[in-house]
Amino acid sequence: MLIRYVLIICLLVSTEAFSQGIKFEHYSDDQGLSHNSVRHITQDNTGLLWLGTFDGLNSFDGNNFTVYKSKSKTRKSINNDDITALAFNNSSDQMWIGTRNGLTQLDLRTSEFKTFLPEEDNPQSLPDPEIRALFIDKLDRVWVGTKDQGLYIYNAITNDFTKVEINGFNYIKSIYEDADGSIWIGSNGRGGIAKINLNSAGAVVTIKTYELFVPGSEEVNPYTYFIYQDNKSDIFVGTREGLYKLDKAEDTFKLLPIANTSVRNLLGPYFICVAQAPNGKYWVGTLGGLLVCDQLEDISTGNYEWYYSVLSDQSSLVDNSVSALYFDHSGVLWIGTENGLDKYDAYKNQFKSIKDISLFINDKIPRISGFAQTYDDKLIVSTHDNGLFLGENNKFSVLSNKFKKITSIYTYDGKTFFCGLWNGDILVFNYITRTFTTVDVGFGETPTFAFTRMENGGLFIGSHGNGAVVLNTETNTYNPLLPDFFYDISTNQAFSDADGKLWLATETGVIRYNPLTNEAKMYHSYLRLPGDSLAMCAKDIGIDSQGKIWVATTEGLVYYSRIEDEFTLVDTTGELREDWITDIRFEKDGKMWLNFNNNRVGSYNPSTEQLNVYHINNGIRLDIFSNRGFLLLNDSIVYVPGKEGIIYFPTTIVNDNTVSEPPFITEVKVQNEKVFPGDIINGQVILNEDINYSKRMTLKYANRNFSLSFSSPSYVNVRLNKYQYMLEGFDEEWITSDNNSRNIQYTNLYPGTYVFKVKVQNSSGFWSDVSAYTIDIEPPFWLTYKSIILFILLISLIIYLVHTQIRKSMLLKQELVLEKVKHEKDEKLNDEKLRFFTNISHELRTPISLILGPAKQLIEEGRVTDYQKSRVELILNNSGRLLHLVNQLLDFRKAQTGELKLKVSDTDILELTKNAFNSFKSFASEKSINFNLTTEHDQILGWIDRDKYDKVLYNLLSNAIKFTPKYGNVDLYVGVINDGTQKLHVEVSDNGIGIPPESIDKIFKRFYQAENSKTENTGSGIGLSLVDSLLKIHKATINVQSEQGKGSVFTVKIPIERKSYKEHEIFDVNTTFYDDEVQPKLQPKQVLQSTSLKEKILVIEDNIELRKFIVDYLSDTYKVYEAEDGLKGLLLCRQIKPMLCISDIKMPVKDGFEFCMELKKDDLISHIPVILLTALSDNENQIKGYKLGADGYVAKPFDPLLLKIQIQNIIKSRIDLKAKFSGEVESKINILSHSPVDEVFINKLSQLIEENIQNPDLNIDFLCKEMGISSSKLYRKIKELTNLSPNEFVRTLRLKKSAQLLKSKEYNVSEVSDIVGFNDPLYFSRCFKKQFGFSPSTLL
């Protein structure tokens, strides 16, 4: 292949056919093409391009490729990926795709693929799967050429294929319809060319065949690529042996010879494809590149242009093997090759490039500083680094490389040229004599850009920031021009007007200089809007044929108004008011050429205000070192520096791309999913056909989030396309976007009808028509007319029902008011009952205590006779029952207020049941009732709330015995059942009076008593109500069966598994139960006679009898003091400092809680323990007492012995803690604190001692001073807390510290004694052993 390229170049350089001045754009698989071998190209009605490749079908919108392959996993597609033919039916919008395995029909409206293959049982089916040619005739019939089975016509109505019999034409490669409607068929081998004449109905009339002869060879009918009719109606055939033409006179095809054998061989001679350009020229694809000619016959004479692939030129044809040619609707030529898709843009190729200068500077890109025209119409180019070059017929040669660093060039006659040098000098070049002279004009190292000839013949020269001079061109002498004015002016360009005045474009504005008056005026700004002036940076300045002065600035085009004597921005839109213009040149007819500083040039006609802008890729002028220069040669050719050399174009032949077709939608997404016709999203078929054909899309409310991507069929300079779009009904104005922003998303639109409109401006500024698409957003059901009607009906129904209900409620209101009043009275009465019972219960606890206390005291003392003992026990038993009733009243109150909490524990239930049963034996015996306990178990273990279970049994057994007459029967049964959960089964049955049927449902209500029970017994009516409440708390059930006059059976079922209860309901302790009726045997009390052992005890109780009883009971053991309220108790406590205080809670003046709180806050008495004695036995009051610092809590009525034992334990605990602190090495000082006040005191004192432990002066005086208290108070506080004197306490802390140090084994005994403040180690050792019982060396 490389040799072939070299031969092409060597041959063509020497021939007139050589022409390689155009550029191609390349697309390949790198840009998304499925395969680089592009064989077929066509375009649909929307403007979308379709490409058939060796590996897949592609659509192309100018920006992105969409690939269709046979192995598509998401949608039905083509049957085979090797595309052998492609044809588009304009009237039906169907694309026909021939492959090596099947003929596929693609309906572009619905995106549905349908493939035709041979069918064994269908003679009308397609007989050959491999397709070689396709054609759509004027009657929209599909002609199909196969590889082995000949020619067929497809009938769309019957889906049948009808064969057209042509003898010898089995391999059909080309099908063509001429202007007369005749069909031409191309084959090879046995068949050559066939002409089929049709009647007006499309039926075959005659068939004439032609043979293609190869001169000088016996070969006949070479491989045919195409048949084509030119604009002269001549028929041409492209084959592998060359190009044939039909000789109409002889009615035979003759080969058009190519005389140059080398050229013929380089071309193949494979003539593969042909297309006619909009300008009438013919483009022919061959194996050796592209041929362009005016007439196809010109190829034989060599009168053509030849474009081919050049390895060193990236813009040349990508591959010489050209398979397909297609001119799209905008006139762009698409070229399919074996190595990718090429694009020839005729509009962009109007701008030619000259790269000759690079040949003289080692293939580097020249940095051009200016252009100048000679008197004989040649071109001189100055460069920043490489000197001057002379151009003739766009061929350049070196003019001078002695003076290389040139900043600018100027001539007024085309003979003498003045060049600014980078060193500040002026180079004068005489074109006639080819001589150079340098002149120093005093600019130093400052470059020069501005020259102009003045009316007096002098040459004005302006530097870039170092003044201006006037040069005498005859003597090469100069005079500075207004040095104080021009010393820091950077002049870019200058000219002299008809009045002789100089106009200068500078970086800071425009200067007008009058040589006659030697005065200069600076115009710093221009008017953008009336009254709105902006600073002006002028890059170029000139005057048109009408004498109007124009200025090119960094922000647009400005003109001078002589009347207002000011500069104004042109009154137009777009580039002339926004873009940086670097150069300006004028034609004689007034049209001007502008060089924009962003790869564009433009022509502007001030009279019509028409601006045409062209993209030429000439780069950007950033500073004075960038490319400069802009030349209008003879009003015919424009020269401008380019990125790779010089760009030039003729002003007379610049054509605008006037074709701007409406844009089309390339992609629809709903809910962020790409949508094709027939796709279902959220249960809705979004599109039944492609939106470009239906122009409408309907979306349900759930699908109202969608996005649209669009593109334009204007493929000329695609990246310069601009779009405007709007969603009518949502957007208020058109939104402008460039080619990189072609996707728009809309979310959460309100229901309604919208119209999406989009239009495109092509690269030449021509706008297309608007493409409009209707978007319907359906309302949700709740916004439809049906839902609104249903809603109205529903509201009406509701109003009717509400009205009816109001009427009913008004009738019931009076009844409800009466019922409410009655209910409130009942509730109030019940609450009063409960409050009364509760208060009575609390009041009863104190006298009960005075009954139980002395009675138990008598038993303890053991000084009673047996008879007296039995009487005392009778007192104890009945006072116990009384206490049980009082507690029941309190529990009932708690149950009603929700204060009872469940606390289950692992319990021997049978043992507990027997104790309850035994407590009622005497009661049953009194009435001669047969009282029995029945069970089938030796032991029943389970989780139960012992207290609540005991109360349930008490009430049920009590009622049973109470309402059973003498000699009756009461039975208690206990067992276990398992119905998925293990439960305790308890039955209490009797043969008593029974319950009336009308009362069975009411007996569990509070205060209710059946009528027949009132005559038999008295009661409160709360027993069974309490039972029901307790069992509900215990997650248990109770049922009753009763018959009046025959008795009742109460059945209770209680869950006893641990898993039946929550963690906070479980109280996991071992409990031993005692018979409430059977008191433990008490030993006779031993009275202590030694008063030296008595500790002080303070009793605070407002009830004088109970207080005297407690004082009397404790007086044998303790020295007891008494007070009647908390205030007096607190004063007495501070006075006598008792060992312990016993206080009631409910007292006048100051109650027990207040007493405890104040005592624990007083630092002198806070260490004294407190036992609260009260009838408030509930958990909440106990918790409150302990939080206030109480050390014990005894509920009334109480056992005196229990109180005494609790006192003894608290006192013993305090003494043991003091001893532990003194005698154990590891014990901490904190164990001695019993209140927050004590803890603060002890921590402060111990920290003070530890910080000064080495201080020999650490004594009581030191401590008193640092603690801020008197010595007596300090002594008393330490003594009461620790049972040690202050000195002993200090010594104890020192010895404990020494033990810690010795255990660390970092010090010896002598060192430790010094550290802890002992001066004598021997004394330290004795003290240590005395304190802890072992010597300090033991710890080493």
From TrEMBL:
One of its GO terms (molecular function) is DNA-binding transcription factor activity. Residues 1096-1211 form the Response regulatory domain. SMART domains: HATPase_c (SM00387), HisKA (SM00388), HTH_ARAC (SM00342), REC (SM00448). The chain crosses the membrane at residues 782-802. Its EC number is 2.7.13.3. Keywords: ATP-binding, DNA-binding, Kinase, Membrane, Nucleotide-binding, Phosphoprotein, Transcription, Transcription regulation, Transferase, Transmembrane, Transmembrane helix, Two-component regulatory system. The lineage of its organism: Bacteria, Pseudomonadati, Bacteroidota, Bacteroidia, Marinilabiliales. This is histidine kinase. The modification 4-aspartylphosphate is found at residue 1144. It catalyses: ATP + protein L-histidine = ADP + protein N-phospho-L-histidine. It comes from Draconibacterium sediminis. Residues 839-1058 form the Histidine kinase domain. The keyword Ribosomal protein does not apply. InterPro entries: CheY-like_superfamily, HATPase_C_sf, HATPase_dom, His_kinase_dom, HisK_dim/P_dom, HisK_dim/P_sf, Homeodomain-like_sf, HTH_AraC.
